Amino acid sequence: MSEQSTSRDRGSVENTVAPSKDTVTVERAAAESGRGGGGLMSGSFGRNLGLVVALLLICAAGVVTAGDRFASVDNLLTVLRFASALGVVAIGMTFVITGGGIDLSVGAIVALCSVWATTFATQTMATDSHWIVMVFAALAVGAGCGLVNGVVIAYGKVVPFITTLAMLAAARGLAEIISERRTQIVTVDGFKDFFAADILGVPLLVIIFVLVSIGGWVLLNRTTFGRRTLAVGGNPEAARLAGINVNRHTVMLYVLVGLCCGLAALMLVSRTTTGSSTHGTLWELDAIAAVVIGGTLLTGGRGTIVGTVVGVLIFATLGNVFTLNNQDTSTQAVAKGLIIVVAVLLQQRLARNANST
Amino acid sequence: MRLRTPFRRHQSRRYSGLVVGAVAVLSLAACTGSAQDAAEDDDGGSDSAPAAAAGSNDEEGDQVTIGFSAPAADHGWMAAITNNVRDLAEEYPDIDLQVAEGTNDVNLQISQVETFINDKVDAIVLLPFDGAAMTPVALKAMEAGIPVINVDREFDDPNAARVTVLGDNYGMGVSAGQYVCEQAGGNKDAVVAEIAGIDSLPLTQDRSQGFEDALSECGLDVDARQAAEFTVESGEEVAANLLQAEPKIDFLWNHDDDQGVGVLAAIENAGRDEFTMIGGAGSANAMRAIQEDSGVLKATVIYPSTQGADGVKLARLLVQDKAMSDLVEVEVPRTVQLFAPVVTSENVDQYIDSAFES
């Protein structure tokens, strides 16, 4: 019950930013969602504020240590381009986790989609007809993997952790078999040109990320599908009694994250002009980390797209600041671990304070 | 073409370590510890640091900012690559080295190179996780007027790099195969096994091809072949299975001495000693084993872990408009391919100081 009221509160807070979405960047939107809720000391305000503070601290560290090298348009675009593909996966992951599941196979599905979309056969077909064939191939493979995950979880009653762990192994293995563990180079110019395009100086990859974020926000907060996702994740039994087809909804959630993986694979294929069975290695952990520090409950029933987007940006910006400061691998890994723990602790503290006042 | 850098022990390390330590303490750069700490702590790996050859090229020139990015240091050879690069940069006061986080995620490595481009570094030394996947961003750097030095794993477009520094993967296979032929002494029934590295990499395919070609010269062929992942665990796992499948082996070539630690463990567990094993890459512990001459490991084929450092040296020459002084040519060459010699108990002393710790 309290979960439900929390989510409704958050809905109202995030609602205030919806009208200005078309022009502002997602990053700013996240900041405004905190400010918009300034008057109401709601739990989600505290959570998002903690995140935005963390992001601002990292940005401040970037400005202090790297100055103009950090605070430049080129650098911002570098961070956003890096965050884009992973961000799309994390949005899908937010739905699955909010719905009470988990998907460990996203990285492997990205690899499989990237390979499938760039096989000699697919590319020949794309050259003969239209490059959109590659897009359909990636999306179909992603959705197919998600469908398998969903059906096994919902109707086979195998826990999501195990099902998607199996998919992790199988999808990457299949990608290796199809590609014969070689890197497949994209030769279809139409595909490369389309995805490499800029619109008013903003790379298409970033635009896709922004559109998926907005779409995800609307889907989670403004539609029946979103409300059902929260209900299924919060209490599946109650959701069933309320007339929701929980099994079917679960399948749809995994298909959704599969589609996101297909889209992310296309973005990665365009960025590298290759498909490879090594693409997306460990993305499942990056995506889950971003979702969790974003404030989505790992046990389901509460989810926030804005939090996930800020979470992705936190990791992307962090990596960028480290690179700019010439830091080595091990220090970065430790810092990332610390960020995860500190961010979650901070959110909990702020949320508790907010609730008690 | 054959190019050998004379190796000498790093004399000034203690002193430079002090300076670095002082800089690290004074540095106000907040958020985290210092990169140099790590470089200081790994004396083991950096023993193989090449000392600079004397010559006018080493005289201090214009300040050069070089960006360096490599895959994650998940095995000794790769760790040695980055350590050698750091050590080399410390020796030259005119090199300002930017090292990006080692990563096996091409998405991240691309953004690192983009950061170097934004920073307008003078040159980029890049050991790609996947050469083909890093080609677009390398082209972007070249178009921005920043010379790219491609190390070890080649781009799929020759325009994406100004200089390419390569080990000789095919040559490694040939050297290993020729050694096997020599030792087999005309025995055409010898059972030859091969444990390769990551099979998706063109370098692994080249090594295997060279091995096969050299063996066929003396009428031998590879009877059993398995691929591992360059890691100790994968080496152990693959070797255990291979030994199970092949009750009697005469020669075993293992592509990589890091995974070789696992391979040797599996051989020990299986209690096998009937064959001669040849390693690859040239790690210090492999060379110590060869020196002791007590186990199955009798030889290894070198794949220099100094090629990243060579890339940085060439980048410096390139930016400072210098040429390789030992050549008549007035420009830095397009491609430098390193030699892959066989190390045995007879010549191990010559190479052991340049070996890397796995």
For the record, what is the CATH homologous superfamily label of the largest domain in chain B? Answer: Response regulator
Report the average pLDDT across residues of chain A. 84
Q: Provide the succession of SSEs of chain B.
A: HHHEHEHEHEEHEHEHEHEHEHEEH
CATH architecture of chain A: Orthogonal Bundle
Helix-and-strand structural type of chain A:
mainly alpha
Q: Could you tell me the CATH topology label of chain A.
A: ABC transporter involved in vitamin B12 uptake, BtuC
CATH domain class name of the largest domain in chain B: Alpha Beta
**Overall average residue pLDDT of chain B:** 84
User: How much of the sequence of chain A is in beta strands?
Assistant: under 5%
CATH architecture of the largest domain in chain B: 3-Layer(aba) Sandwich
- What coarse outline of chain B follows from CA principal-axis ratios? elongated
Describe it.
The complex is a heterodimer of chains A (357) and B (358). Chain A has 357 residues and is an all-alpha fold. Chain A contains 16 helices and four strands. Chain A has a single domain (2-356), classed as ABC transporter involved in vitamin B12 uptake, BtuC. Chain A has helices spanning 2-15, 26-36, 43-66, 73-98, 106-117, 120-128, 132-154, 160-179, 189-195, 204-222, 224-234, 236-241, 246-272, 283-293, 305-324, 329-356, and strands at 184-185, 198-199, 202-203, 274-275. In chain A, the strands form two sheets. Chain A has a two-stranded antiparallel sheet with strand order 1-4. A two-stranded antiparallel ribbon of chain A has the order 2-3. Chain B has a six-stranded parallel beta sheet with strand order 2-1-3-4-5-11, with helices on both faces. Chain B has a six-stranded mixed beta sheet with strand order 7-6-8-9-10-12, with helices on both faces. Helices cover 43% and strands 16% of the residues of chain B. Chain B is elongated and about 60 Å long. By secondary structure, chain B is of the alpha/beta class. Chain B has 13 helices and twelve strands. The two termini of chain B are 28 Å apart. In chain B, helix 4 runs parallel beside helix 12, helix 5 runs parallel beside helix 6 (131-143) and helix 9 crosses helix 10. Chains A and B meet through helix 3, helix 4, helix 13, helix 15 and helix 16 of A and helix 2, strand 2, helix 5 and helix 6 of B. Chain A: It is a multi-pass membrane protein. Chain A: It comes from Nocardioides pinisoli. Chain A: The chain crosses the membrane at residues 49-67, 79-98, 104-122, 131-152, 158-175, 195-220, 251-269, 281-298, 304-322, 334-351. Chain A: It is found in: Cell membrane.
